[in-house]
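Need the bound structure for arginine, inputs here:
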Amino acid sequence: MKSEKNHLWGGRFNEPTDEFVKIFGASIAFDKILALYDIQGSIAHATMLSEIDVLSSSELNEILKGLTKIKDEIVNDQFNWSIDLEDVHMNIESRLIEICGESGKKIHTGRSRNDQVATDIRLYLRDQVLLINNELERLLTALLDLADQEKETIMPGFTHLQAAQPISFGHHLLAYFEMFKRDRERLYDGFKRINTMPLGSAALAGTSYPINRDRTAELLGFERISLNSIDAVSDRDFAIEFVSSASLIMMHLSRFSEEIILWSSSQFDFISLPDSFSTGSSIMPQKKNPDVPELVRGKTGRVTGNLISLLTLMKSQPLAYNKDNQEDKEPLFDSVDTIFNCLHVFADMVPMIKSNKDNMYQSALKGFTTATDLADYLVKKGLAFRDAHDIVGKAVSYGIKENKDLNEFSLDELKSFNKLIEKDVFDVISLEGSINARDHLGGTSIKQVSKAIKAGRKLIK
Ligand code: ARG
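Answer from helper R.:
Posting the output first, comments after.
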């Protein structure tokens, strides 16, 4: 079956587009989510055109009425999207011409789909970043609340996934607060570059009409205007930068997910997740699976993949616009949806995490987690750190043989390793003593954790 010539650009063609090529080249299936931004851009462009007398006020009125009608049709799911019209821009323009006739044909004056699509994506991403930021802030608040509840809960801190030193669970949660805090800064910073208007660059060289770009930018709420028309139609850095920030957020979520999964296993049994955020097994009746963090961990790969897709898409592309760029949309849209959903579900789940304080405490008692404290104690009594390290190493070796932790040793047993050890050692090698000794900015003492929570609250108002 042969199709008809495209009525928006078919003038110089003698043959219609091959049917499969038409389907192959169409982006309407995925770019229609830009529709309302496309209309917003057209309204601003037409308004500016009428202000410089390129459109008469009656033409502008007809165009604005037509665009409003199209918007209603789209919102009410009555718009007839057509693959023959390739993409969202031509679908809308074509419908505008159907509605307004001659004046509709003037909307594309001084504009190209190249600057149009670049503008649409930026308008879309600007909104999405704000929505994502809301979810990120909900998660940050949830972390502060949980850290506050858990600041006095003691757990083993790990290095190499081996018990290392006792820490406050609140302090551990605040480590994630710091990661997501940096992620928020990155989103804010990238926002400036997203919020730049390419419109007016036209196909690549600008336009011969006396356009007022400041006015269009003002109407669209753009903070800045692009300064080079060639760059503006071909730049996708802003999208790559966003997906890079999103990849970091996902990487952080995947680490948190991994820990939640480990902690909720019966082997760790540090926390329990709400039933409403878990699933069962169709065969093993005892199972309660942490599907939510597992899925988030799994979805991390998609966003990282999207980042690589976009970087590779742009690599070696000659200036200016190339059809390759149509491929920017799916990875970008998928990253936006994934990151929003993952942050949303985490912000809802985190407040429902219940700690198993007793188990965490018992676990922190295992594995000689206060060995460093004993070494520091000996240093304070006058030994060099290396000697103290060696003495405590011997004590640990004895403890392993006797199946006893350091704080279960009698004073005589401890003294047998070094006679400088006295009764006050027990204040130091207790879990509470160990934690509260780390009382400096960034340390795990309860006092410092409380301070960090206060500082965090000030930041996320
Ligand atoms: N659908 C196209 C895209 O997403 C719009 C721009 C097309 N421009 C062109 N010169 N063919 O990139």
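Comments: The mean pLDDT is 95. The pocket of arginine is lined by residues 27, 31, 87, 89, 113-114, 117, 321, 323, 325-326 (CB under 6 Å).
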